[in-house]
Amino acid sequence: MLRALAQSSKEIRLNIELIKRTVRGLEWDIVSKGDGVDGYQVVTEPVVRFFEQPDGINDFDSWVNQLLETLLTIDAVTIYPDMQDGRLVSLDLVDGATIRPLLDLRGRIPRPPQPAYLQVLYGAPVTHYAADRLIYAPLNAKSHTPYGESPIEWALMAINTAIHHDAVRLGWFTEGNIPGVLVSVSPEWTTEQLSVFQDYFEALAKGDIHRASKILFVPGNGAQSIFQPQQGDADKIEVDKWLMQVICWAFGNNPAEFGLVPSAGLGGSGYVQGMENAQYRSMIGPITGYLKALFDRIIRDYFKRADLEFKWIGLEPPEDELRRAQIDQVYLSMGVYSPAYVQERLGVPMEFRGGALSTPMVGLPAQYSSLFERAAKYELHRWRQNAVALFKGKTREQFVSEVLPLDLQNEVRARLNVCRTADEAAEVFDAFLNGGLQKCLFPAREVGKAQPFRYP
Questions:
Q1: Exposed site from 328, 358, 442, 446, fewest CB < 10 Å?
Q2: In three state form, how does the secondary structure of 61-103 look?
Q3: How is residue 151 annotated by DSSP?
């Protein structure tokens, strides 16, 4: 029923499409939570690449469009994480209307490994899932029911009125029998005479643009003979405005997006600008926050990357961005935090962060330099084993490191690209391990003779 209402009511459909287009117009990225030391390059590429095509078929834009349709109509977003050999391969969207949450004796969703959700197809139960094998995530959750509640349910009476109003409007133009003008003639005329004169008059005036704006004299009884019935407002604009405002309230949209702008007082452009923050608080903020929490949960539980998070880019209203930039400028001048903190929060790609990575560890306290160098050497040795295995034809996963700076990783990969044998690949790493590593990590420090590295 909710889906049928969303299709038959133009007010609901327009509000849903506005929300979907707003969210789909946002940029996104997978970024580090910023708990590490400045200069580290946290590898996010595998997670970003996965979210670019979450179900292996649709890109992120199409996939999130399907998710939002379910969220805004029946509030029963359901995702099946397809795991193969302990690795997440796809996030399959499931029709939430086929999922029935189960309750235990205490009225709670059963904990794994007990069945928590039952899928019913074609009227018959077919599959059950444990709570850790299916993501069932309503936005408007309640304690007295495991089901969500979509905005459509908050305005059923207004929606019903809108649908009947559209039906009346359609009937006005298709089934209505109230003519535009009535002209009385002599009461002595018979129906045959009326029909003949009607045909004569239509033949005389129909299609004649010049006669359409002229007065035509017809026989009459000398009294008032021309009547123009009271024309009702078939569109009933005021009713449409009220109905749209109610549905906008339910979905958290700004009525000004649909042209409903007051003509006086706080109207015009000032009203539109004033409503942007309200729309962010009531619609954009809650929905993007819900999606971020859902994606963060997937990254944490299925990718095992608690150091990463999903981030919307360009989400804040322009005036909020300006205010945030002014605050950042003050805090940077006071030394409260560094430019790297702002870059990380904004999700600025590493290639646009200037030369910050070319000298990643300059300024690191001396007592930590040796620890970082040891960690970097161990990472290079681990990478060396991985590269040698690859050249020998043994399957290994792509090497990732949260320790080695990005510039160093890029340089190593550039040298590996020209290698043809496992021995040549090993020599690339040996050059860094036995003298070249310190120059990459501490270019501003005088480096003495390095001791050969002993493999662990």
A1: 446
A2: HHHHHHHHHHHHHCCCCEEEEEEECCEEEEEEEECHHHEEECC
A3: G
Rounded to an integer, the average pLDDT of 371-395 is 80
Q: Look at the block and give the residue holding tokens 């029963």.
A: 76
Tens of pLDDT, residue by residue over 58-83, are 999 999 999 999 999 999 999 999 99
Phi, psi of 79 (to 5 degrees): -130, 130
As given in the structure block, the two tokens for residue 414 are 């550039």
- The residue among 379, 5, 52 whose CA lies nearest residue 156 is 5
What are the structure tokens assigned to 134, written together?
């299916």
CA distance 69 to 63: 10
Instruction: Order the strands of the 115-121 sheet from edge to edge.
Output: 99-101, 115-121, 124-130
Q: Say if pTM beats, i.e. exceeds, 0.70.
A: no
Pull the structure tokens for residue 347. 């999700």
Q: Is 207 exposed, middle or buried (0-12, 13-18, 19+ CB in 10 A)?
A: exposed
The tokens of 51 are what? 């979210």
pLDDT in tens, 346-382: 767 666 665 433 334 444 555 566 777 788 888 888 8
Q: Domain extents for the chain?
A: 157-172+181-238, 366-441
